[in-house]
Amino acid sequence: MKGRNNFILKVKNLEVTFEPNLRALRGINLNVRWGEIHGLVGESGSGKSVTSMTIMGLLQTPPAHINSGEIIFNGSSLLSLTPEEMRLKRGKELAIVFQEPSKYLNPSLKIGEQIGETLRLHLNMRREESQKQTLKLLKLVGLPGEERILSSYPHELSGGMKQRALIAMAISCNPLFLIADEPTTALDVTLQLQILKLIGELKNSLNMSVLFISHDLAVIREIADTVSIIYAGKIVECGNVEAIFNNPLHPYTRLLLLSIPDPSKRGKRLKSIPGKVPSADSIPPGCAFHTRCPIAKGICREVEPRLKEVKQNHTVACHFPGKIVEGV
Amino acid sequence: MKSNLIEVKNLVKEFKPRGLIGNIKRGVKAIDNISFSIEKNIVFGLVGESGCGKTTVARTLLLLEQPTSGEILYRGVSLTRLPKKTLKDYRRNMQIVFQDPNSSLNPKLKIATSLGEGLGNIGVSGTEREEIIDKYLELVGISPKLKNRYPHEFSGGQKQRIVIARALTLNPDFLVLDEPVSNLDVSIQAQIINLLIDLREKLKLTYLFISHDLNLVAYLSDQIAVMYKGKIVETGSAENIVNNPIHPYTIKLLDSIPGNPRKHGSSEKYLTTTAETVDGKNIGPTLECPYYNLCPIKGKICRGKMPELKKVGDKHAVACFIIDR
Q1: Mean pLDDT across the stretch A145-165?
Q2: Which residues of chain B from 201 to 220 reach within 8 Å of chain A, CB to CB?
Q3: CB count, 10 Å around CB of A320?
Q4: What confidence category does residue B283 fall into, taking pLDDT thresholds of 50, 70 and 90?
Q5: What's the whole-model pTM score?
Q6: Using an 8 Å Cβ cutoff, are B266 and B251 in contact?
Q7: In B62-188, at which residue ranges do the beta strands (DSSP E only) sit?
Q8: Most buried one in A264, A281, A320, B281, CB count within 10 A?
Q9: pLDDT given for residue B176 in this prediction
Q10: What is the pLDDT of residue B273?
Q11: Cβ-based burial of B263 (10 A; exposed 0-12, middle 13-18, buried ≥19)
């Protein structure tokens, strides 16, 4: 079951709209293998967080509507579960770490209390037992002086320490699957790399699979095995990390990579993408990227390209995959 | 030799929390004895992590905050000693662009009104004012036809363009850019960076570019200063900082750039996976190197003495005892 080519999570053709007419997700296809770190990259408003919230069953409906699609997690269909069944899975089998640690910790509860709560709820631990386990978890996420941290309040910890505490909470029930939704965006650069390393290490030691969401391609390159690029509520390219970074086939991916400053080309103009990400209530017909695309032709304005496997394990949604025009 | 547009000498800014009875609490030195100079027409990059004092440098440099001590010179004129009225004439030459365009534009004012405010202050009005507004909007890529709209009608990238246009209306020659692209998406970031590169050439501007992103600073800047806990720990040409860093903190910053090959080979030593217990504040006088707690190469001397910024090459200076070893 846990073979390299089996998927722990399959998202099929997921469509989510928000009232009145925002098309947040327009048919997301996402396959996460057992034991991999799957990177999901996109700009703000592209649907990254709606995807993660839908998987976790945290989407408020209404205003959101799940119009179609399926989410198969470890063999069971998440969208057909009752809220109560989902609540039992959430935190135990699937867990999530959010971007801003201070927003997701209760400021009036001690750290130990907050981590212990998950253990008592999901694993039916007694208080003393949960406290022992919490200490172990804190050690695992690299928080020194664990005893002291148990009885600290969130405001007594630095941003990096808070993020570690949240990660401890997320992995407390040894979940199969972790969603890390921009976990390092609010952190300083030197801390960022530490947290990335920590997530990589935990993935190995706990045998987790990870969906790692970020707007930062460099971060994804650092940590991910497989990468999916999302644009205007659709996956436009997916492949392993080397293929995406060395041989991107979608013009959007290629332009994104070119817009990262490279200090060896100091002072030169960057290749930038004209215009901006379309908002969810005015997505252009045909290929959603055609208005900004340097290689767009007539067909791109009319026919929406489907995600096709162009090379082995490398899928692209573009009518002209890999076509290169000058400078792009 | 090129002349210096800006010179900062021994700048100190201390924030004193008020106790119950007057100032009895010890102050926090946000910037601690900083000196640097910026030549005409260059981009001077200032890099450091949150809380290191980057923004305080920007604010104090423009005298938006009164420095505790030290001197700021613009074209050789000491601004700190000028009377308020004369200072006003100098202010128009030095402008600032902040990180968050949403909070730097008044949501209740049409953008033309926001842009015209500075011009009104120096007595430019009527058609002349409108012409200048149109000119600079055009220059940053916003159609002057849109000038009677309100900020919420623009996207984040457009707002940042408008803020840049506003900074330019008084025709300054020095621009402080405080994390100008950190709030923007990757594709928009590149657009704004290109705009800044173009404007510098067209208008012969000098930039102080502040960011936490060393990759970006190295891309844009000619000179770089690395700040840590209110002090400059290393400064030099962009090439020197990127290819020949000396201070252990600079090396750590470089090696922390994600996706970067850790060419300085020190990764394991520097990048511990256990949390660091850092108190980010610089309270009270201390006799040790500010980086002492985290430094992988600390020695005995680092505890008892504060390293001073020492020259190690052409325009390359480091505050670390390693250069004496």
Answers
A1: 84
A2: 212-216, 218-220
A3: 18
A4: very low
A5: 0.85
A6: yes
A7: 69-74, 77-78, 94-97, 174-178
A8: A320
A9: 95
A10: 47
A11: exposed
| Chain B: closest CA distance from residue A102 (Å) | 16
Positions of E strands within chain B: 4-15, 28-39, 43-47, 69-74, 77-78, 94-97, 174-178, 206-211, 223-228, 231-237, 310-313, 316-318
- Chain B residues within an 8 Å CB radius of A272: 187, 190-191, 193-194
What is the reported pLDDT for B24?
59
C-alpha distances in Å from residue A313, one per residue of A213, A234, A240: 20, 18, 7
CB-closest option in A198, A271, A273 to B273: A198
**Partner residue opposite B252 with nearest CB, options A158, A190, A201:** A190
CA distance to partner chain B, nearest, from residue A13 (Å): 26
CB B274 to CB A142 under 8 A? yes
Report, as an integer, the average pLDDT of B211-240. Answer: 92
B252/A215 CB distance under 8 A: no
Q: In the predicted model, what is the mean pLDDT of residues B293-308?
A: 84
- The shortest C-alpha distance from B173 to chain A (Å) reads 19
Which residue does chain B place closest to A193, by CA atoms? Answer: B256
Residue of A46, A147, A201, A272 for testing the chain B interface, max B β-carbons within 10 Å: A272
Each domain of chain A, given as residue ranges in start order, spans 7-93+176-260+269-316, 105-172
Task: Indicate if the pLDDT at residue B254 is higher than 50.
Answer: yes
Å between A260 CA and nearest CA of chain B = 7
CATH topology of domain B4-93+172-324: Rossmann fold (3.40.50)
Q: What angle do CA A214, A217, A222 make, to 5 degrees?
A: 90
Question: Degrees (nearest 5) of the Cα angle B164, B168, B169?
Answer: 120
Chain B residues whose beta carbon lies within 8 Å of the beta carbon of residue A37 = none
Q: Is the pLDDT of residue A54 over 90?
A: yes
CATH class of A7-93+176-260+269-316: alpha beta
- Tell me the pLDDT tens digit for each residue of B15-46: 877 766 665 566 788 888 899 999 999 999 99
User: Tokens representing A227?
Assistant: 């990468």
Position B144: which residue type? P
- How far A198 CA sits from the closest chain B CA (Å)? 6
Q: What is the reported pLDDT for A317?
A: 93
Per-residue pLDDT reduced to its tens digit, A81-135: 898 999 888 888 999 998 888 888 889 999 888 988 888 888 888 888 888 889 8
Structure token pair of residue A18 = 């928000």
Can you give the pLDDT at residue B70?
92
| Among the ranges given (A152-166, B14-28, B219-233), the one the predictor scored with the smallest mean pLDDT | B14-28
The answer to whether the beta carbons of residues A134 and A150 sit under 8 Å apart is yes
To test the contact with chain B by mutation, choose from A48, A167, A253, A259 the residue with the greatest count of B C-beta atoms within 10 A, namely A259
| For residue B94, pLDDT beyond 90 | yes
B293 in contact with A, Cβ within 8 Å: no
Output the pLDDT for position B313: 87
Range A38-75 burial, b when 16+ CB lie within 10 A, else e: bbbbbbebbbbbbbbbbbbbebeeeebeeeebebbbbe
B250 near A CB under 8 A: no
* Domain range list for chain B: 4-93+172-324
Whether the predicted interface score ipTM is above 0.85? no
Chain B closest-CA separation from residue A104 CA (Å)? 19
A276 closest CB neighbour out of B155, B215, B216? B155
